[in-house]
Design a protein that fits this description.
DNA_brk_join_enz, Integrase, DNA recombination, 17 helices, Double Stranded RNA Binding Domain, 3 domains, 10% strand, hpI Integrase, Chain A
Length: 438
């Protein structure tokens, strides 16, 4: 074994002679060798030489020599390291380099796992996730924002223990408690709405790491899987309604609305006269959406996953044009031409309450739109024109990308027939009209 003095002299000789020097400090049979290589610049490096399982010699670097031990290994440090590797070699592990690299990878993976676990531990609660989701809908101008907020408030947020838990720690079994509660209470319609809201919130959080269009806030929840995905959709309990108002019911509704002077009544009547428009879209109409010179009104259809709402243009036919002109004069600077106070836009629930008060619960707000489409079909308005009037999603590449025709002529003809039918219904002398839009 070398002494520190001998090693120092060897380093000096290598510099003076200009020859690379190789020394052996320890050589034990079956345990490998501790070697030292000295460059002409006087730099000494330690190596553990051994024979691998394939019979090849491998010089595994241990470090650079530093007598002080501050920037490298002392001679004793190198011998200690040799002893550690020799013990591993004696145990039967012949591929020292692979063994140590695997150890480093495992250590790094363990460290990453600890950091990930810490991140998950510090991630936001379900309550925070749902709040972020509602804010996201509001920021995007989604008409469903308020309804989603109420759904979550009424059926999820009141479960304090659940919503106080980290969103990424909840399992499908945990979330099932929400739906069991709704099922027990017979709230079948709420099942689908609640699931849809939770699924969308989790979906945003799970995609946020890879989708730069999603607000950074959602990344803080560290969600990697959507626990709602495996839960049933409850579609069997949310069948589309088939209730259609009778002509007598429609007549009573129209006559009652015409006799009322409130903004909710005027908006409801306008929705019906325009062919059964969605209240959520009509109630957001402002003066900027009205062109009285051209006689058109523009609704914004933000239904579904659209990033930008689809413009839905309708002709203003009499008497609707006169009504709208009066509304603009009153609410020109309001957030809705149907505002009751000039400061806030009305909510569709106001119209739901109005309809319930008129019919005593015999039918619902959504049934009126279905009735309008049914009656339009009975009047002979073709399916394509009905789709244009009611802003149904059109299918096909051409409809989505190339068909920019607004069908104003066809819509005008159909709405004139429709309004004539409604006026006749109220007067009690209905004459069905056929062939509109053919």
């Amino acid at each position: 074994m070398l002494t520190v003095k001998e090693l120092g002299k060897a380093i000096k000789d290598a510099v003076e002679t200009g020859y690379v020097t190789k020394l052996v400090d320890i050589e034990r049979r079956g345990q490998g060798t501790l070697q030292i290589r000295i460059s002409t610049a006087g730099r000494a490096n330690f190596y553990y030489r051994h024979v691998t399982s394939e019979g090849k010699r491998d010089d595994y670097p241990l470090g650079t020599y530093d007598p002080a031990g501050s920037k490298g290994l002392t001679l004793e440090d190198a011998r200690d390291r040799y002893g550690e590797l020799a013990a591993i070699y004696r145990s039967g592990t012949k591929d020292i380099r692979d063994h140590l690299q695997n150890q480093e990878r495992a250590k790094a993976a363990g460290l990453r796992a600890e950091m990930d676990a810490q991140d998950r531990q510090e991630a936001g609660s379900l309550m925070a996730l749902l709040a972020a989701y509602v804010d996201y809908l509001k920021a995007g101008g989604k008409a469903s924002a308020r309804e989603v907020e109420n759904t979550l408030k009424n059926h999820v947020i009141l479960l304090e223990d659940l919503v106080g838990t980290r969103a990424n720690a909840l399992t499908p079994k945990d979330l099932r408690a929400i739906f069991d509660r709704l099922q027990d209470r017979g709230l079948t319609r709420a099942l689908g709405k609640t699931r849809a809201a939770l699924h969308s919130a989790y979906n945003l959080a799970a995609r946020a790491e890879f989708d730069s269009t999603i607000p950074m806030t959602f990344r803080t929840f560290k969600v990697t899987i959507n626990p709602v995905s495996v839960l049933p959709t409850f579609s069997a309990l949310s069948k589309p309604g088939d209730r259609v108002l009778t002509r007598r019911e429609l007549q009573h509704l129209l006559q009652t609305l015409r006799g009322m002077k409130t903004m909710p009544a005027r908006s409801m009547l306008t929705a019906i006269y325009l062919g059964g428009q969605r209240p959520t879209q009509l109630l957001r109409v402002t003066e900027a959406d009205i062109d009285l010179d051209r006689g058109i009104i523009t609704l914004r259809d933000g239904k579904g996953r659209r990033t930008h709402p689809r413009l839905h243009v309708l002709p203003l036919v009499d008497p609707v044009k006169g009504w709208v002109q009066e509304l603009v004069a009153v609410n020109g600077s309001a957030p809705s031409i149907f505002s009751s106070d000039g400061k806030t836009a009305p909510h569709p629930s106001t119209l739901s309450g109005l309809v319930h008060a008129i019919c005593g619960g015999a039918y619902r707000l959504g049934d009126i739109r279905r009735t309008a489409e049914t009656e339009l079909a009975a009047l002979g308005v073709t399916k394509d024109v009905r789709a244009q009037i009611l802003s149904h999603e059109l299918s096909g590449v051409q409809a989505r990308h190339y068909d920019r025709h607004q069908y104003l002529e066809e819509k005008t003809e159909a709405l004139n027939h429709w309004i004539a039918y409604l006026e006749g219904l109220m007067a009690g002398n209905v004459i069905p009209l056929r062939g509109v839009g053919t």
